[in-house]
Structure formats: C-alpha cells, structure tokens
Amino acid sequence: MSVYEKFIQNERLRRFFVLAIVIFILFLARSMITMILLTFIFTFLALHFVKFVQRYLKIPSLILVLATYSLIVFLVYLAITKYVPVLIHQSVQMYNSVIHFYQTPTDDHNQLLVVIDNYLEKSNLMSQIQNGASILLRYVQDIGSIGLSFILSFILSFFFMIEKKQMADFSKLFLKSDFDWFFQDIYFFADKFVNTFGVVMEAQFFIAVVNTGITTICLALIGFHQLPSLAIMIFILSLIPVAGVIISCIPLSFIAYSEGGINDVIYILVVIIVVHLFESYVLNPKFMSSKTDLPIFYTFVILLISERLFGVWGLIVGIPIFTFFLDILKVKPIHSVSVTEKSSVPPPE
C-alpha cells in the first residue's frame, strides 16, 4: 500500500489536512472576509426563511425567493430615503448628549460627581474622545467599501437561492471526482459549520430581539428620546454573547446623565442588571446553554481572542467557530437543527 493510499485511509489525519487547507485559503482571502461572511449569513437566513414558509404554504421556491428579495430591496430603499436621515439626526443628538455630559460642570455639592469630574480632567478624556471621533470618521470614510461588500453579498446570495437546484446538481460532481475524498471532507466540515452556526446564531438572534425589546420599552418609560438609534445599538451589541448587554450600559449611562441626571443613571444600571440577569439565567439556559453549555469565563476569553483575530466580526462569529471546533474534536457535539436543506448536496455514498 502506497503512502498516498495510507493517507487516504487515515480519516483523522486526512480531515486535519483538509481543514488546514481551508483555514489557509480563508487566511489568504482575509481581505474578502466581510463579503464571505455576509454572503454566508444572507444565504443562511434566506434558506431558513424559505423552508419556514414552505412548512405552512406550498409556494414554489423561485416565487418565494423573488418575492423575499424584492421586499428586502424595497425596505432598504424605504429606509434610505425616509428613516436613515432621521436615524442620523438622532445619532448626532446622542453624540451631542455624550459630549454635553463631559462639558457640563458638575454640582459642587455632590462629592461623588466632584471626584468623577476630577478624574476625568486628569485622564484628559476629552482628547481621547476627540481621537476616537477621528477614528470613527475614518471608519465612516470606508462606508463605500462596506456598502459594496453588502451589495455584492446580497447579489451572490440571490443567485445562489434562485439556482439552488443547479448548485446542488453541480456540487454532486465534485463528490464523485478523482479527488472525491477531498471534497467529501469539505462537505463534512461545511455541514458541521452550518449546523453549528445555525444553532448558536439562531439562539443569539432571539436573545438579542428579546433584550432589545425589553430594554427599549424600559428606556421609553424612563423618558429617552433617541429610541430608534438606541434600539439599533442595543440590538447589535446584544448579538455579542453576554458581553453585549454589559457594554451597552456605558453609552446609555452617559446619555441618561445628560438627560436626567444621576437618578436616570441609576435607573439605567438597574435595567441593565435586570436584563443581564434575565439573559444569563432565563434566555441563555433555555436557548444557548442547552446547545453549547459554555461557561461565562470561556465566553469572554473566546470573545477577546476572536476580536483580535477577526476584528469586529470575531465578536459575532467567535462563539460559533469555537463550538464548531468543539464538535469537530468531539469535545461536545452540537445537536442538529433543521436550518438548511440537507438535500441540497447529499452526503457522499
């Protein structure tokens, strides 16, 4: 038996080799990682939505896909023309509220505020905010490239959905080629990753929606005015497991102090604590822990490392990637969920 045949028969070594190649290719394509992830997320959500609708309505996939993507385009156009200007105006007001917090003199009769004010002056925080604003401006200047990635990902996802059957038929050819073992292992890892991503992101998306709803209602009762901007910020941060809720209390506390003083800050902290406890002890055990069962310490470490490796995307995909490796290494298998159509590319015979 030749070395090549021994290598093919050694499934563990062979799959490790294939996974290393995939990781290396993704590393070389790291400049396109935003478009790759957006395409994957759009396609994943579209497949999930189409399959969900077809459980109750016998609508052909092509008609459903065309209607869904047309509706998305219309909603994006509506948002750009009507709601984005309002959102920008409210975001500017929110930024001005934070600046007003630092520029407004504190009450000399409140010793706690005097101590905080002295600390802020010594730490030269205003210059740090200005530096942060310049960094933010550079990010805004890159909005063109981000928008292009968004558009291309949306188009690629659309083409994948309308040619789903052709994609499946064409993909079968790779599983029966001379190097079928290579593509069968790629299929194995792709199936594992999609399943893992679906389990984690579906649970985290639901948690984010619940957190955003509860927090926004509480902010409305307290008397906050920039609710659309705050709701979007809270939802995006809530997609970050565990840490997102805690991070959101920083800007919310600044805005609360500028609008209502220290009493509103206390209200905000109470709301964040209640929402965090609700997420940690009700939502996570029900929707996340039963599938990943990651301790909070592991969660924070994964977020720190993934942010270093993948940037902002790491905060969102870090947990799915880690649970993917847990499943691959058979440390903790992830329970299967029906979020993709398993018949798209049949398993190798």
From TrEMBL:
<feature type="transmembrane region" description="Helical">
    <location>
        <begin position="296"/>
        <end position="326"/>
    </location>
</feature>
<dbReference type="GO" id="GO:0055085">
    <property type="term" value="P:transmembrane transport"/>
</dbReference>
<keyword id="KW-0472">Membrane</keyword>
<protein>
    <recommendedName>
        <fullName>Permease</fullName>
    </recommendedName>
</protein>
<dbReference type="Pfam" id="PF01594">
    <property type="entry name" value="AI-2E_transport"/>
</dbReference>
<feature type="transmembrane region" description="Helical">
    <location>
        <begin position="16"/>
        <end position="47"/>
    </location>
</feature>
<feature type="transmembrane region" description="Helical">
    <location>
        <begin position="59"/>
        <end position="80"/>
    </location>
</feature>
<keyword id="KW-0812">Transmembrane</keyword>
<comment type="similarity">
    <text>Belongs to the autoinducer-2 exporter (AI-2E) (TC 2.A.86) family.</text>
</comment>
<dbReference type="GO" id="GO:0016020">
    <property type="term" value="C:membrane"/>
</dbReference>
<feature type="transmembrane region" description="Helical">
    <location>
        <begin position="143"/>
        <end position="162"/>
    </location>
</feature>
<feature type="transmembrane region" description="Helical">
    <location>
        <begin position="205"/>
        <end position="224"/>
    </location>
</feature>
<feature type="transmembrane region" description="Helical">
    <location>
        <begin position="265"/>
        <end position="284"/>
    </location>
</feature>
<feature type="transmembrane region" description="Helical">
    <location>
        <begin position="230"/>
        <end position="253"/>
    </location>
</feature>
<keyword id="KW-1133">Transmembrane helix</keyword>
<dbReference type="InterPro" id="IPR002549">
    <property type="entry name" value="AI-2E-like"/>
</dbReference>
